[in-house]
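#onboarding

Welcome to the new folks! Below is a worked example of what a typical request in this channel looks like: someone posts a single protein sequence, and someone else replies with the predicted structure as tokens. Don't worry about understanding the tokens yet, we'll cover that in week two.

Example request:
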Amino acid sequence: MSKGPGLFSDIGKKAKDLLTKDYISEQKVSVSTVTESGLAFTTSTANKGGYSSGDVATQYIYKKTSAELKVDTESNFSVTLTAPSVVPSSVLITTLKYPNYESSKLEFQHFHPHAALSAAIGVNKAPPLDVSLTLGTPTFVLGAEGSYDTSSGRVSKYNAGISVVKPDSCSSIILADKGDTIKASYIHFFDQVKKTAAVGEITRKLSTNENTFTVGGSCAVDPLLLVKMKLNNHGSLGVVLQHEVIPKSLVTLSSEFDTKALEKIPRFGVSFALKP
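Example response:
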């Protein structure tokens, strides 16, 4: 476990990742290489719905400082610089984007044994301000986050959450969408490497009285093969097969279909990630 409560974005993240990560509906190939100097290159291509895209990313890490450059086929350009701040136990993250420069931002993160703070501000003329704070320990966390729109002078978002973390489980409750949505989740791990697990999540939207309940899990069939499944009360069923063909290189097959409308065409996805 970490030495502090972690950021607000970490609340419920383990359950969310198990229910969403690797459930893809595109065809994607990515190849990564690393030079002797430590410079990493990653090339990715994807095809979804007949539309193809690609990007090239480079990353260099020196001690606690990292720099990442990414360019895609739509001529989008981004640079991310991460470096220790002059404030102890803090990190400064600078993200610059072009031509979508309005998405550029400057973020400050501070970590304390009993608290974590994150503050981000855009670099445009009317920059949004995002702030999150968590209090607690690695096993019990209380947190809140909010966004302030400087152009209108209004608070555009505020959420709150609580999380209880144990070595083999994690439970969380998040109040989101300005208090309109309540999301509760629980995940339990059955092995030390945390590849075999079960998860449950319930989401209630108060304004519409709509409930969504999702259960899922993952099972390590052997050290190289992982199977994941999820099903919600609306009949959406998803399955993932992931095989490590060579060390660190994965082939992922994914499919999702509506069990209440079997005449609909299922969504399929495949991914191949080659890493050194």
